[in-house]
């Protein structure tokens, strides 16, 4: 008979202990231990990757010929995955509730050509999924819906149906009969994920797992989950904005700097192929506090609007707030402005917003941030035909940014007249005569003189 025992598992690292402690001895996180009843079952063979009879193989003898990636038909997803879905890969996609994870995966299931897709949902009935499918796609696809939460049933269906792609709508709702604890607990999540990993590696079927995230923005369940899977994608965006960004946080088979941009419409998610046109205001009007940055996410350049508002603080401590931009970085840039350019911002409230609800991590946006803050502070608008691409260093120097040519080309395509870039980027330009004026700048003071002259 199986033996049951009570153990405490750390939500963050998966550490297990028979006694409750406030602070996890392994990862030092507080209050992450949760109690679980575990019935240990001997036969957990299914969850192991090795079959026992495998032996080392010479690297040159391994054939990768039939490892052709499956093209999902949704370009933005294919690009984020590194050029399509790799056979045998396990992809975890996380995001806040209601952001559109199920919609995205269903659209993927419906748009793959000539492939059999198994969409397993533990959250919605097949009727509900069908209703949603009717809204988002007109064609009928080779997609099987399966409302099931029992892992063993799912695995046996994968064996009998032999789909080409499997989608599991929420790993947190799945449970395995092998371990006795509630769905969504660390043990269950880990058990189900390892079993699906083993299945996917053995059969070569790519598996997508939808994961809930907790209030800190991490994928709920053990952090080790992110180590097990091949790829972690984050689906993010402001629920009140239309735009959604699919970002690779980890990818064993591609770059993590890639993003995919979508727009949530009445009939599902639409790919945004030319983000620049959406992310900068349609009519370029002269308002103070607006700076346009030529940024790059992954391999794609786009122009984005940075808006700031600087006003005298009503209370003693000035407020600093940033949407779509790292607040600590904003504070650093404000300190640079104060120290190197002599602007008194210590008694001012500063609000910064990246248009469209998008989060930007490219440091090349710094220059636009600084200029927009200053523009709002002195209440003089920046010429709407100007844009910026440069990182700002602690001593106020403008540092070079990557892929400068692509940024310049994008700015030119959108009809900008002048772009401000670092002097150090001069040598990485291949003398091509671009019909856009390039201003090389070394220090933030140079930029201010040129734009507010
Ligand atoms: P959903 O995919 O259910 O989110 P998740 O699985 O991440 O919890 O998306 C739900 C939201 O998307 C819902 O609030 C409504 C919106 N939505 C649309 O605006 N248009 C649509 O065509 C669909 C299907 C959903
Ligand atoms: Mg959902």
List the helices and strands and how they pair.
Elements: E1 3-10, E2 16-17, E3 33-40, H1 75-80, E4 90-95, H2 101-111, E5 117-121, H3 126-136, E6 143-147, H4 151-161, E7 165-169, H5 186-203, E8 207-212, H6 224-228, E9 231-236, E10 243-251, E11 259-265, E12 268-271, H7 275-279, E13 290-297, E14 300-312, E15 320-323, H8 327-341, E16 348-354, H9 366-378, E17 386-389, E18 391-392, E19 398-399, H10 404-413, E20 418-422, E21 437-441, H11 444-451
Helix pairs in contact: 2-3
Which regions have little confidence, pLDDT < 50, spanning 5+ residues? Answer: none
Task: Please provide the count of β strands.
Answer: 21
Shape estimate: globular
Structural class: alpha/beta
Distance between the termini: 84 Å
Mean pLDDT: 85
Looking at how many chains there are and whether they match, the oligomeric state comes to: single chain
């Amino acid at each position: 008979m199986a033996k049951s025992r009570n153990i405490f598992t750390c939500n963050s690292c998966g550490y297990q202990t028979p006694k409750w402690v406030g602070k996890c001895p392994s990862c030092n996180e507080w209050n992450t231990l949760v109690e679980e009843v575990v019935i240990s079952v001997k036969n957990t063979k299914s969850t192991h990757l090795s079959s026992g009879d495998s032996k080392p193989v010479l690297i040159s003898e391994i054939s990768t010929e039939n490892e052709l990636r499956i093209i999902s038909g949704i370009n933005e997803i294919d690009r984020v995955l590194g050029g399509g879905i790799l056979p045998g890969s396990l992809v975890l996609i996380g995001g806040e509730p209601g952001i559109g994870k199920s919609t995205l995966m269903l659209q993927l299931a419906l748009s793959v050509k000539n492939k059999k897709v198994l969409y397993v949902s533990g959250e919605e009935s097949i009727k509900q999924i069908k209703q949603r499918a009717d809204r988002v796609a007109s064609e009928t696809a080779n997609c099987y819906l399966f409302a099931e939460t029992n892992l063993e049933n799912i695995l046996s269906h994968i064996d009998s149906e032999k789909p080409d792609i499997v989608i599991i709508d929420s790993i947190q709702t799945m449970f395995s009969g092998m371990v006795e604890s509630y769905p969504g607990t660390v043990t269950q999540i880990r058990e189900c994920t390892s079993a699906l990993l083993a299945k996917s590696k053995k059969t070569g079927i790519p598996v997508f797992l939808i994961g809930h995230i907790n209030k800190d923005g991490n994928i709920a369940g053990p952090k080790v989950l992110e180590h097990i899977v091949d790829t972690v994608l984050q689906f993010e965006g402001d629920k009140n904005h239309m735009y959604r960004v699919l970002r690779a946080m980890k990818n064993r088979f591609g770059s993590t700097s890639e993003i995919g941009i979508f727009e949530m419409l009445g009939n599902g998610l639409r790919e945004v192929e030319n983000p620049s046109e959406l992310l900068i205001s349609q009519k370029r009007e002269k308002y103070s506090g607006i700076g346009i940055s030529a940024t790059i996410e992954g391999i794609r350049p786009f122009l984005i609007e940075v808006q700031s508002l600087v006003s005298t603080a009503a209370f003693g401590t000035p407020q600093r707030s940033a949407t779509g931009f790292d607040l600590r970085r904003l504070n650093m840039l404000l300190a640079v402005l104060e120290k190197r350019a002599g602007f008194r911002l210590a008694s001012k409230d500063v609000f910064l917003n990246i248009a469209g609800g998008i989060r930007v991590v490219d440091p090349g946006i710094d220059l636009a941030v600084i200029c927009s803050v200053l523009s709002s502070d002195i209440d003089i608008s920046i010429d709407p035909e100007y844009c910026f691409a440069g990182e700002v260093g602690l001593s106020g120097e403008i540092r070079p940014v990557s892929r400068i040519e692509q940024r310049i080309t994008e700015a030119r395509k959108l009809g900008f007249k002048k772009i401000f870039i670092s002097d150090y980027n001069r040598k990485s330009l291949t003398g091509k005569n671009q019909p856009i004026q390039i201003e090389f700048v070394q220090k933030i003071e140079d930029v201010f003189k040129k734009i507010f002259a």
